[in-house]
Amino acid sequence: MRNWKAVKAVKTNDYIKELEGKSAEDLKKELTAAKEELFSLRFQSATNQLENTSSIKTVRRKIARIMTVMSEKAKA
């Protein structure tokens, strides 16, 4: 049996490393795309078309990770 929390942590760490390798401009583009995705999900939720409500939480965390990497790069 797999430890799914460990698998998820590995995927998250890989995503963070991927973000750290991107330039500031690429991070801004990815942040804009994630915010547009969040807007779309919220709109679907408001009109009762959203089937997987946990996707909003996932995208919010994705935005937070991108913003964290951007602020770390700005401080360095």
Please name the defining characteristics of this protein.
3 helices; 82% helix; Helix Hairpins; mainly alpha; 76 residues; flat
What can you see in these coordinates?
It is a single chain. This protein has one domain: Helix Hairpins. The protein has 3 helices and no strands. The chain has helices at residues 4-20, 24-46, 54-75. The longest helix is centred in the middle third of the chain and has 23 residues, at 24-46. The protein starts with a helix and ends with a helix. The mean pLDDT is 89.
CATH architecture: Orthogonal Bundle
Number of individual domains: 1
Strand fraction equals under 5%
Give the ordered list of helices and strands: HHH
How many helices? 3
Overall geometry = flat
How would you characterize the largest beta sheet?
Answer: none
Distance between the termini: 41 Å
CATH topology: Helix Hairpins
Residues in helix, %: over 70%
Top CATH class: Mainly Alpha
Question: How many strand elements?
Answer: 0
Low-confidence stretches at least 5 residues in length (pLDDT < 50)? none
Please state the CA-atom Rg, rounded to the nearest Å. 14 Å
Query: Which structural class do you get from the secondary structure elements?
Result: mainly alpha
Mean pLDDT score: 89
